[in-house]
Specification:
Blueprint: H1 29-41, H2 46-57, H3 63-73, H4 86-107, H5 112-129, H6 134-149, H7 159-170, H8 177-193, H9 204-225, H10 231-244, H11 248-251, H12 258-265, H13 273-283, H14 286-299, H15 304-314, H16 320-330, E1 333-334, E2 339-341, E3 347-349, E4 357-363, H17 368-387, E5 392-398, H18 403-412, E6 419-421, H19 426-429, E7 437-441, E8 446-450, H20 456-464
Parallel strand pairs: 4-5, 5-6
Antiparallel strand pairs: 1-8, 2-3, 4-7, 7-8
Helix pairs in contact: 1-2, 2-4, 4-5, 5-6, 5-7, 6-7, 6-8, 7-8, 8-9, 9-10, 10-13, 13-14, 14-15
């Protein structure tokens, strides 16, 4: 497996000097995080790397940062290396030796908090090293169940992920069938019990946790479906894998399961929707295939054309556009009313645009990713004036900004897409948790949040195009 760090998922500042000295910035979680990366990536130094990770992991206030560093970044060095390039393979081997030294220091440390952070990863690496020693594999698996699953939170230190990776090893041996079944049953029970219900007050961390629990639950059911020849049982398991695969809410919190996806699957397989679709296409009636395609197309609109073809076959003569809009409305929520004044002093009211689609973009001049996509936003806006003026309206909302900065920015870049200054309430109304965020309001006044990181132009165009 290739190392899978994505800079867009990281949120830490440029690294600072390791030692705290007079006149230098005070050490902080971001300092520890970035210094650890420096002493494992740029100039390997076990002791210096250990110092920083110990500082981070031993402080309960830094638990989330420590989890991200240990179980998303650091853990990659213990994944199987599938490299064709000899030089890259040699580098991976060297990195793993360094990581092993650091991990051994962490598990031997006097800090109980730090030991708790790395225990699940440590047992997993011991199981990796056990090879085909089935006696040792069984002993370690039982230890993992006892210390990391029973009565434990399997999310904070990603014991759920490591448990599934251990299961992929032990399930190969008939002699370990009992331990594998016990681990599988306990993990499935934990994953079912841990599912997070979304409310209006759900925090970003809660939504990340929701995405994680759902993805791992989908994965477990998919793997179980591969083990059975019973058609009904396979259908039920694939349906569960389908239902728990990332939805639009999860897609906006992909960081919650991104590393687990790669470590469990070795690829960017964003759910198991296609697997269930293949099954129902071969084994079910056209109505069920169409219902499955609708759910898929609402998350990934590239399936809309497949849905259109199936709709024509199942419901000839009926309006596909009406069917599509109803599907969207059934899976969305009521949009809060918008009433703002644009920079050009014109008023913008969502109530006056009833019957139209409305794309609302939340951004700021201080936001790098926002600025990067503005050329595409300008081009999209220009195309809506020419091609979709009676069907789609666009409004952008500048947040945490000043009118003078926004005006200067728009003038400097020759942008003329509509901009309104935030009233500091609209972001809360639409539950904006990051920037840029785009919401698409339907002609009937419902809305969805466009997933971050997708081709939003294609996403929006597919959503609004009619028969």
């Amino acid at each position: 497996m290739k190392r899978i760090i994505l800079s867009s998922l990281a949120c830490f500042a440029t690294c600072c000097t390791l030692a705290q000295k007079p006149g230098l910035p005070k050490e902080s979680p971001s300092n520890y995080y970035n210094n650890f990366q420096k002493f494992t990536n740029e100039k390997p130094d076990v002791d210096s790397a250990f110092y920083n990770i110990r500082k981070l992991a031993s402080n309960a206030a830094y638990a989330n940062q420590a989890t991200d560093l240990i179980h998303n970044s650091f853990a990659q060095d213990f994944m199987e290396a599938n490299e064709d390039d000899p030089s890259r393979l040699a580098m991976r081997v060297k990195r793993r030796l360094l990581a092993t030294e650091i991990l051994n220091k962490m598990i031997a440390d006097t800090s109980a908090t730090m030991k708790r952070h790395v225990q699940s990863l440590y047992i997993f690496t011991k199981i990796q090293k056990a090879g085909t020693n089935k006696g040792l594999l069984g002993k370690l698996t039982t230890q993992f169940i006892t210390s990391e699953i029973d009565g434990r939170d399997i999310y904070q230190n990603r014991a759920g992920r490591y448990g599934l990776m251990i299961l992929s090893i032990t399930s190969k041996y008939p002699e370990l069938k009992a331990q594998s079944a016990q681990l599988s049953d306990k993990l499935l029970a934990k994953l079912k019990a841990g599912q997070v219900t979304v409310t209006d007050s759900s925090s970003r961390s809660d939504l990340d946790m929701r995405a994680w629990y759902r993805f791992l639950n989908a994965y477990v059911n998919f793997k179980k479906s591969e083990e059975t020849a019973d058609r009904k049982q396979k259908e039920n398991l694939l349906k569960a894998a389908f239902d728990y695969s990332p939805d639009l809410v999860d897609k906006n919190h992909k960081s919650g399961y991104f590393y687990d996806m790669h470590m469990l699957l070795g690829e960017a397989k964003d759910g198991f929707q296609d697997d269930y679709l293949t099954f129902v296409t071969a084994n079910s009636d056209r109505q069920q295939v169409m219902a499955t395609l609708l759910k898929m197309a609402l998350v990934e609109p590239t399936y809309k054309e497949n849905l259109r073809v199936m709709h024509k076959e199942v419901m000839p003569g009926d309006s596909f556009n009406a069917y599509w809009k109803k599907g969207i409305d059934d899976g969305s929520v009521n949009a809060p009313p918008i009433s703002l004044h644009a920079l050009d002093k014109t008023s913008f009211s969502s109530k006056s645009l009833s019957g139209q689609w409305i794309l609302v973009d939340f951004w700021g001049t201080w936001c790098g990713p926002c600025r990067e996509e503005h050329p595409a936003l300008q081009k999209f806006y220009e195309s809506t004036i020419v091609e979709k003026s009676k069907k789609l309206s666009v409004l952008t909302v500048a947040c945490r900004d000043t009118e003078s900065k926004v005006t200067a920015y728009m003038s400097k870049n020759n942008y003329n897409f509509p901009v309104a200054m935030s009233d500091s309430k609209i972001e809360k109304s639409f539950k904006v948790q990051g920037y840029p965020t785009k919401v698409l309001i339907t002609p009937t006044g419902r809305y969805i949040t466009v997933p971050f990181g997708v081709d939003w132009v294609a996403f929006v165009n597919k959503y609004v195009e009619a028969d």
